[in-house]
Amino acid sequence: METLFLAPEECGQLSEMHNGDGFNIRYDQVEPGAFNGECLYRGSPHMVFCREQYTRSICVHGTAPKGMITAVMSTRRNGAAWLNGEVMTSDSLGVFTPGDEGAYRSPANQSFTNFIISQERLERAVRALFQLPLSEVLKHTATLNVSTMAMALLREATAEIFTPKSPDAILRAEVWDRKCEGSVLQALCVALVGESAGHERQRAHKDGRVAKHVRNYIEENFAEEIDLEMLCGVAGLDARALEAAFQDYYGVAPMEFLYHRRLNAARHALAAARAEESTVKDIASQHGFVHLGRFTEAYQGLFGESPSATLKKK
């Protein structure tokens, strides 16, 4: 398996890399302070494993690619993580079916692991091990409460991927890689089937259509003047119902989501601009910030540096 190690200073670097691989994912910083992190990627044509950790709380939201099952496992080192509004513990496994949209919020300094696996390959593994179709095991995107035994198997298999022992001299590297991939597949199957045994225990699928609709509106219009009353009109709900629906799905209130979306977009624009051709005031205005002083204060509070310092970095 190929290995790639990153120490990104900006979440945007991760978004750009993911968007080039069939994903549509964005990372937004949601906690004040200087951001940095570490990402370790190991992958083959059928499976990709990502172990990530960041110094600040982040919200990762996007869509799983076609033909791929995406799972996320949290270590819960420092507070609980959230997936589509549901708390994830050390015994939780979040699983996205192809094309489904969702949001994962991770607290600062928490390590989490992503598994991106061919749907066809996982289907074959579930049928071979349990004589069940994948559609009976995983009907929709969900946060699964996994048994202690199944989670231990998954963590052990994952550890072998990221911190491999020296393979037996008889085994070639590619054979060892297939063995490790097989161990992860088997552990995932045990976790999925254990949760779905007795379909009445399968979690009900949360309908996030209202939250998605409001988020899409924010994404398309975040540079314009937007207030909560306007978003209520978009959603067709009163303020309390909208905030509850949005918080339930994305883990943040809609106006907080808008606030951080604007700040992160402004940061990426400042980092890409040339100081001799652009000003902080112009870029702030383009991203919906009318008062330069308030923008500067909020920006410095979130990112730990002034907007002008970001603009001058090259």
Describe the structure.
With 314 residues, the chain is an alpha+beta fold. The chain is built from twelve helices and twelve strands. The strands form two sheets. Strands 1-3-4-11-6-9-12 form a seven-stranded antiparallel sheet. The longest helix has 24 residues, at 173-196. 38% of the residues are buried.
**Overall shape:** globular
Tell me the CATH topology of the largest domain: Jelly Rolls
Summarize the biggest pleated sheet: 7 strands, antiparallel
At the fourth level of CATH, the homologous superfamily of the largest domain is Jelly Rolls
Helical content class? 40-55%
Mean pLDDT: 81
Which consecutive residue ranges, at least 5 long each, have pLDDT under 50? 197-207
CATH C-level label of the largest domain: Mainly Beta
Strand content: 15-25%
Q: Reading side by side through the largest sheet, how are the strands ordered? A: 1-3-4-11-6-9-12
Secondary structure tally: strands? 12
Tally of separate helices: 12
The H/E string reads EHEEEEEEEEEEHHEHHHHHHHHH
Known CATH architecture of the largest domain: Sandwich
Structural class: alpha+beta
Q: Please give the radius of gyration in angstroms.
A: 21 Å
Ends distance: 34 Å
- What is the total domain count? 2
